[in-house]
Amino acid sequence: MRILRFAVDRARLDPVHLSRLHSPTPPDHDATFPGRPLSSTDAASVRISTPLLPQHFSRTFPSLANRNFRLLLSGLLVSGTGGWVQRIAQDWLVLTMTDSPTAVGVVTAFQFAPTLVFGLHAGLLADRLPKRQLLLATQVSMMLTATALAVLTLSGRVEVWHVFLLAAVLGTVAALDNPVRQSFVSEVVDGPQLANAISLVSCTFQIGAMAGPVLGGLLMSTVGAGWAFVVNAVSFVGPVVAMLCMRGTPTRAEVRAARLAAASRRGDGARAPGVRAGLSYAVHTPSVLWPVVMVGAFGFFTISLPVTLAAYAKDVFHSGASGLGLLNGVVALGALAGALTTARRRHQPRLRTVGVAGSTLAAALLVAAAAPGQEFFTVLLVAVGAANLGFLTSAQSLVQLAAVDHLRGRVVGLYLLVFIGSGAVGGPVVGWLAETYGARTALLASGAVPAVVTLLVCRHLAKAASLRLGLTSVAIHLPRPSLLPRP
To answer: Which residues pair with 29 in a beta bridge?
Structure first.
């Protein structure tokens, strides 16, 4: 009896032991690929990962107990900061060369348009090939693209078409990188911790979005845009080293074996579902369909928010490159606060959560568009950043948690296709609105149109819920048959 009591007490006190008691997969096997036993180094990593973190810290951010996820997160933080440095420098370089916000929107379109063409097929590759090797290839390719732009700018030979061309190349690589990276998070981190992991990835992105514009504005005002592109090229060393240091990620043979095993359980034999399977699943799953619809409406405008802010800095506040960096940094500061808040959230997101978050974001954009002065506008951008991050994190978490394992890459690819693709289409439109009618009108449209879409989606969901409730009520009041004989 004493031995049994000691074992129970130890399980209560040891979170690693407790997680193993409740885990459906033995601790010496890989949860993602059950047929593969963990190596000695991986098993040691599982045993020591949780005690490395303070107890209160591990309760708030449980996904950080995973070594591979910590490596992934650190690499994304470095490259995310460099990416924002380049985006701010690139937008300002085109604006100073052309004196046209529309041209800045065209750069945005070139950078995000390839997702419209390759997004779904990139998700298919994410389901069929080892994600770590794919991410290594994309990070090296983006490093070379940033290096080419840096050389052209520092040599004084850069022209607008150079920026357009390299933005298109970068967008093509990013079309593959985005769904692979997003679905790789769900491969590295277990299901119960996935929402926390997605929030932390958003945190690192927003930390980069907060520090990157400020650093980019500082570099442009002191040494020029060319050195900002050099910083971005060097920043890709971080994720490359992180990928090389990871242990226990699936090989190509193991990915194929897991895919065939999943097909066998579904009764498909060796036949693997293609892109249409992901589309069909998304259309017939409300927890995927409606978040994607709302994300598309907001992405049309909010991805081009830096374009609108560039017009504010140049034409409304006359604050130059440093002012543009400050405005983007303030948005990122609010987004970081929103990411930390969502990371601490205990419950899983629902459709209602996404609808409320979308309504909050639309309201924040409308109030910011009506702000009378620069100080009030800057303060409101904090709320815009927090609401934007809360909405995107809720929508993305819901979509990833609703997707089945063998289709997750394609579902994430569809999500990113709609989000980034709508931004590619909306970039020139937002730039044209800012150039023709002013920056305030562009920001007003950015809040008004998504507000209407969110209202319509919420109304549809409310009607569907009311119908289900009515059917349930009718079913409850139906007479139940009795087995007793009537008198």
So the answer is: 37
Residue 474 has pLDDT above 50, yes or no: no
For residue 328, the number of C-alpha atoms closer than 13 Å in the C-beta half-sphere is 37
**267 contacts: CB under 8 Å, gap ≥ 6:** none
pLDDT score of 46: 39
315 contacts: CB under 8 Å, gap ≥ 6: 438, 439
Q: Quick one: 234 exposed, middle or buried, by C-beta within 10 A (0-12, 13-18, 19+)? A: middle
Is the per-residue pLDDT at 19 higher than 70? no
Q: Is 35 helix (H, G, I), strand (E, B) or coil?
A: coil
* Rounded-to-integer distance, Cα 284 and Cα 456, Å: 19
Distance in angstroms between the alpha carbons of the first and the last residue of the chain: 58
Total count of residues recorded for the chain: 487
Structure tokens at 130: 């080892």
CB 35 within 8 A of CB 257: yes
Residues 182-231 have pLDDT tens digits of 778 877 886 667 777 877 887 777 677 667 877 888 888 888 888 999 99
d(CA 382, CA 335): 7
Please give the angle made by the CA atoms of 302, 303 and 309, to the nearest 5 degrees: 70
Instruction: Please give the pLDDT value at position 267.
Output: 52
3-class secondary-structure state, position 287: helix
Task: Check: CB of residue 430 under 8 Å from CB of residue 446.
Answer: yes
Helix axes 194-222, 160-188, angle to 10 degrees: 150
Where do the H-state alpha helices sit in 267-349? Answer: 275-283, 286-302, 305-311, 320-343
Highest mean pLDDT (candidates 5-9, 154-158, 179-183, 303-307): 154-158
